[in-house]
Amino acid sequence: MLIIIGELLNSSRRPVEEAFLQKDEGYLVGLAAEQERAGCSYLDLNASTLLDRESEILTWIIPILQDRTSLPISIDSTSPAALEAGLRVHRGRALLNSLPGRQRELEEIIPLICDYRPQVIVSCLDDGGFPETPDQMVRLADKILNRLLSQTSLSKDDIFLDLLARPLAVRPEAGRLFLESLLLARKEFPGIKTLAGLSNISYGLPRRRVVNLTFLSNLIGHGLDAVIADPLHPDFQATVVVSEFLNNRPGARERFLTWARSGQKED
């Protein structure tokens, strides 16, 4: 079954940024609860646009979200200080989003992983930028994964591998390259969960939601394990359920029949 990480608690969205600044816990908890009801397994939390207040906001909102929902938090930041602030107050195991292959961040973030032992999203990006081919992507992933597994007590099951979908508007072959990288990563790294940030693929395009959902169906067909996405889009659940059924994923037939009988109207 596809693991869904809800993306809506992100300060790049103006209402969320305002709720963070005003400490409007009612709005934020409501948005978290909607994503939980939509079937998410994690809540991604990003306050990076708040700059010097990022750590403060994470420290404030994480305990509130954990009191009011049952989901672990994906602490989404490029700042090691903010990551540590969030990890320090999180009860149980958080999901750290993310660990790239850049040398400085490896040196700063791996000690946090040793101290707090979160699950980890590994991002296939290093000091040289984005890998240009599936083979380069897998070689970089292998380098980061080997370092992470050798220097921490994490197991393969604790790790999500984000192959970093790039915008089609910038690179028209980005969708094909991601799918090829996904197949290769699944072959080379058994036991590691593959992940995609769904909205990246459509950045800069019109009709983004149609692009995202079509890409999602392709990803499921290629064996993707987890996705960071907006679970509240009215067609998101249908795309997941039907795509999993078409690809004969374990339990998908039963989930499809339950969904089909749940009052959904025929098209």
From TrEMBL:
Signal sequence annotation: none
Pfam families on file: Pterin_bind
PROSITE patterns tied to this protein: PTERIN_BINDING (PS50972)
Keyword annotations: Methyltransferase, Transferase
GO CC field: cytosol
Keyword tRNA-binding: no
Keyword Transferase recorded: yes
InterPro entries referenced in this protein's UniProt entry, alphabetically: Dihydropteroate_synth-like_sf (IPR011005), Met_Synthase/Corrinoid (IPR050554), Pterin-binding_dom (IPR000489)
SUPFAM superfamilies the UniProt entry points to: Dihydropteroate synthetase-like (SSF51717)
The family this protein is said to belong to: Belongs to the vitamin-B12 dependent methionine synthase family.
Name recorded for this polypeptide: 5-methyltetrahydrofolate--homocysteine methyltransferase
Species assigned in the record: Candidatus Saccharicenans subterraneus
